[in-house]
Amino acid sequence: MGMFCRQCEQAAKNTGCEVVGVCGKNPEVAALQDLMLYGLKGLAIYADKARALGAKDDVIDKFVIEGLFTTVTNVDFDPVQIAGKLRKCFDEKEKAKVLYETAYREKHGGTAPAIADGPAAWIIADSLEGLVAQGQAHGVKTQHSDPDVLCAIELVNYGLKGMAAYANHAYHLGKKDDEVFAFYHKALAATADPSLGLNDFVGLAMECGKMNIQVMGLLYQGHEDHYGAPVPTKVQLGTRKNKGILVSGHDLRMIEELLKQTEGKGIDVYTHGEMLPAHGYPGLKKYSHLYANFGGAWQDQYKEFQNFPGAIIFNTNCIQRPADQYNDRLFTWGEVGWPGIKHLTGWHFDDVINKALESPDMPDAPGKEILVGFSHNAVLGVADKVIEAVKTGAVKHFFLIGGCDGAKPGRNYYTEFAEKVPKDCVILTLACGKYRFNKEEFGDIGGIPRLLDVGQCNDAYSAVQIALALANAFNCGVNDLPLSFILSWYEQKAHVILLSLLYLGIKNIKLGPSLPAYITPNVLKFLVDNFNIAPIGDVAGDLKASLGQ
Ligand code: FSO
Ligand code: SF4
Question: Which residues line ligand 1 at a C-beta cut-off of 6 Å?
Answer without folding.
Answer: 250, 273-274, 298, 317-318, 404, 431-432, 456-457, 490-491, 493-494
